[in-house]
Amino acid sequence: MNELEMIVLDIIVNAGDAKAYAYEALDKVNKGQYHEAEEMMEKANHALSLAHNVQTDLLQREAAGERTEISVLFVHAQDHLMTSISEKNLIEQIIELRKVVNNLINNQVQLSHI
């Protein structure tokens, strides 16, 4: 495997990890496990940071005149990173909404026991 393929796979793996952590965070918040959800989102952000740093390195190389071979695998990596970032951002918003819903449900349950 050449260097570019290793770099591309690094982007794919880290972006995939980020997406998995974000969905795990959503699952945790749905169960009311807020601390665990925050930990998963921190892991998602870290994985995305790793993937983004690799991408940034490629962009800097390109800007310095080093051409990057565009392959289907490279395009897949870029697509995977972009969708992982978008999904993580949406999941963050869903988590905040879910916290509000959980709070409303808990308040309604408490009122029904009065």
TrEMBL record:
This is PTS system cellobiose-specific EIIA component. The modification Phosphohistidine is found at H76. The active site is at H76 (tele-phosphohistidine intermediate). The keyword Protein transport does not apply. GO terms for biological process: phosphoenolpyruvate-dependent sugar phosphotransferase system. Binds 1 Mg(2+) ion per trimer. Mg(2+) binds at D79. PANTHER family: PTS SYSTEM N,N'-DIACETYLCHITOBIOSE-SPECIFIC EIIA COMPONENT. Its cofactor is Mg(2+). The lineage of its organism: Bacteria, Bacillati, Bacillota, Clostridia, Eubacteriales. GO terms for molecular function: metal ion binding; transferase activity. InterPro entries: PTS_IIA_lac/cel (IPR003188), PTS_IIA_lac/cel_sf (IPR036542). Signal peptide: none annotated. CDD domains: PTS_IIA_lac (cd00215). Keywords: Magnesium, Metal-binding, Phosphotransferase system, Sugar transport, Transferase, Transport. It comes from the Bacteria.
